């Protein structure tokens, strides 16, 4: 058994093993590999897609999920993160799925419990299963990722998704481009291919991953205005009609009218809902990979 703490945790061969297993689960979404296993869903940050898809994935694999939500727990009384983990670990836990606002929290859980841990998002650090499901979705449409051009647009500075995507896509042979205002770029990140506007980036790209503006992590004034951001970095119908061959993804939840317009959801090359469907299959495959 092994952990998935970040993209460094998997090899290229392991990624394709997970992809192949996910394809099997899309055809036959049931297995019994987690029968008798108790998996903690430890979500110390809010989530809809990741938490529910992991919960459903555990059930379809025959396991039992132990839900832990920070809101309403003893954390509100001052209990520490480490004490919470040790408390839960007394219940014969076989694995952990951890989301936390602080980077490297899943690593801490692994060190404290010696159990397999799957990172469901830690601060602005990593979100490996989101990267896996996005790469898998693109792969299903393009056939392979070798030499393909993938543009990541938006709030790179605060995005754990962006960091995981860049590592994984390059591991699989794709070229990665970045499109973002300078205030939303990390100071010391090596930028492979930079485009100042989304329109210029679409002329280059085979697929685009638009990111959510993470307002909860932003300081005031980091972007001039939401309308100006939308003008230079937002997806809209006009762009989709001009570049119908370019695939468009978004990890969700989307701020409609900023990162993309609601009308974009009607276009066949916008794969946001397909990402959600693939997310369940990928997370089932990751659970099997890590816990059996």
In short:
The protein is of the alpha/beta class and about 290 residues long.
Structural account:
This protein is an alpha/beta fold and 292 residues long. It has two domains: 7-126 and 279-291, Rossmann fold (3-Layer(aba) Sandwich), CATH 3.40.50; 128-275, Aspartate/ornithine carbamoyltransferase (Rossmann fold). The chain has ten helices and eight strands. The strands form two sheets. Strands 2-1-3-4 form a four-stranded parallel beta sheet, with helices on both faces.
CATH class of the largest domain: Alpha Beta
- With strands numbered from the N-terminus, the spatial order across the biggest sheet is 2-1-3-4
Number of strands: 8
**CATH homologous group name of the largest domain:** Aspartate/ornithine carbamoyltransferase
Query: C-alpha Rg, in Å?
Result: 19 Å
Distance between the termini: 6 Å
Please mark out the parts with pLDDT under 50 across 5 or more consecutive residues, or reply none: none
Reported for the largest beta sheet, the result is: 4 strands, parallel
Work out the helix count.
10
Structural class: alpha/beta
Shape category:
globular
Which features would summarize this protein structure in a list?
single chain; 292 residues; alpha/beta; Rossmann fold; 4-stranded parallel β-sheet; 10 helices; 8 strands; 39% helix
Helix and strand layout, with pairings?
Layout: H1 12-27, E1 38-43, H2 49-60, E2 64-69, H3 81-88, E3 95-100, H4 105-113, E4 117-122, H5 128-142, E5 149-153, H6 160-171, E6 175-179, H7 198-204, E7 207-210, H8 226-233, H9 237-242, E8 247-249, H10 272-291
Parallel strand pairs: 1-2, 1-3, 3-4, 5-6, 5-7, 7-8
């Amino acid at each position: 058994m092994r952990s998935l703490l970040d993209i460094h945790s998997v090899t290229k061969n392991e990624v394709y093993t997970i992809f192949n297993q996910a394809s099997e689960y899309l055809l036959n979404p049931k297995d019994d590999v987690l029968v008798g296993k108790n998996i903690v869903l430890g979500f110390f940050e809010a989530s809809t897609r990741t938490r529910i898809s992991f919960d459903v994935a555990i059930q379809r694999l025959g396991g039992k999920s132990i839900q832990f939500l920070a809101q309403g727990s003893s954390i509100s009384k001052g209990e520490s993160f480490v004490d919470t983990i040790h408390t839960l670990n007394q219940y014969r836990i076989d694995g952990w799925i951890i989301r936390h606002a602080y980077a490297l929290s899943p690593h801490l859980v692994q060190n404290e419990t010696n159990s397999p841990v799957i990172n469901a998002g830690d601060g602005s650090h990593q979100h490996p299963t989101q990267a896996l499901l996005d790469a898998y979705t693109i792969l299903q449409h393009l056939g392979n990722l070798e030499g393909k051009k993938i543009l990541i647009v938006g709030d790179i500075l605060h995005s754990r998704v962006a960091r995981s995507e860049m590592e994984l896509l390059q591991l699989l042979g794709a070229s990665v481009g970045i499109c973002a205002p300078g205030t939303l770029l990390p100071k010391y990140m090596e930028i492979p291919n930079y485009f100042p506007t989304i329109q210029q980036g679409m002329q280059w790209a085979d697929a685009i991953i638009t990111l959510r503006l993470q307002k909860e992590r932003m300081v005031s004034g980091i972007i001039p205005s939401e309308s100006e951001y939308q003008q230079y970095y937002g997806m809209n119908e006009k762009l989709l009609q001009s570049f119908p061959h370019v695939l468009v993804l978004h990890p969700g939840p989307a701020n409609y009218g900023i990162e993309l317009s609601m009308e974009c959801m009607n276009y066949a090359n916008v794969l946001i809902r397909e990402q959600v469907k693939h997310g369940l299959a990928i997370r089932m495959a990751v659970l099997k990979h890590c816990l059996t």
